[in-house]
Design a protein that fits this description.
3 helices; five-stranded antiparallel beta sheet; mainly beta
Amino acid sequence: FLLINDPELKPDYNLNQLPLTKDFGPVLGSMIARTGWGEDKTSSDVVAEIKGGGFHFGNHQHADAGALQIYHHGIQVGDLGLYLSYGSPYDFNFNKRSVAHSMLLVRDPNEPLLFRTKSNDGGTRFSQRFPRTVREVLTDSWFRTGYVRSSDFGPDSKKPVFSYFNTDLTAAYTSKVEAYSRSFLFLNTGKKDVPAIILLWDQVKSAKKSFAKFWQINTLYNPEVADSGKIRLYGIAGGKSGNTEVNMLKPAWNERKMEIKGGDSVGYVFGDLYSVKSPWPEARGYRIMISHADEMKQTEFLTVFQMVEEGQKPYPLNYEERKDFIRLITDNKVIIMARPESLLHEKIVFSLPGEKLYEVIITGIKEGFWNISGSKRKGFNYWVQKDKNTIYFTGKDEEIVLNPGRDYESDEGSYD
């Protein structure tokens, strides 16, 4: 206190000067994106967290690599575990395990159970090993849960329109998983009716096609499921409520199975039930588990989340799948998103329809120079930064062509 206290230094409590997105670096491997810093319970701000590949040290750390959380008028997607005691059957078989989190489960029925665990939840490796040195952390693959392939947000670093995060999570699981990548794109719309949109794309390949793969999100209130397969989640805080509209684009509704565990069965872990007595809503939340109807070694889950204010409607989605990427148009955004496990490196052609001015966001594109040309404007050269792998520009009513490399006749700079 005597060394660092400066009586002349006055605290500044204005949170609005802080950036809306933060990348927490390679050790934890995670990102938090928000639409604002409203702290009042009636705030309509959306906050989302995505966890990625980094390092795992056991003890109090959960087996939650890749977990998603969304706050909008309360927790709409998140964790259901409660920290009521350390090392109890509930703590080691549900609370700290992947099954209590919104993430992917891959179930190998013969996976060994370690560290006093009794249930096979299909999640990431549960660890109670503690490293003694930095060298042990860096050289022993046990402590590594993957790596962040790409992370970027912009175009304004304080109030970004988009926040992009792509991670390889293969190392978080045992060898039951041959490859697994997850892409996350958070869109701050700036609108009151639908303040935020999230795209989440998972691509997973298991060692055997018989290993069941479950895409899971957890929520506090009983979800509403439409005949079309769309899911509506609920949140309420301070007397105000909102919905999260969940639209899974892949696999299609007729190609997937869905199971919901809730209430007294929320802690049901493939044959074992773990329940606790608590007034907290997490004790009786709901787990939504989606899997492909057929056994497959490689499976994709592509999902759009729209956070919608009470009484409002989600935006229409214009979706098209190409060989190496998807194109999604919603509101005033045109999204080109590469498949999670790879980077775009070849020519890309798409259109901006009509006279509306679109924000174009391209994610998962190879680093280096790209030339961007429009049918109605002069082209320009764009430098894509390594480990960011994004492009942003605006345009309307024209065909857009992206070519790797740069063009001598084009401008150097932005397209805004």
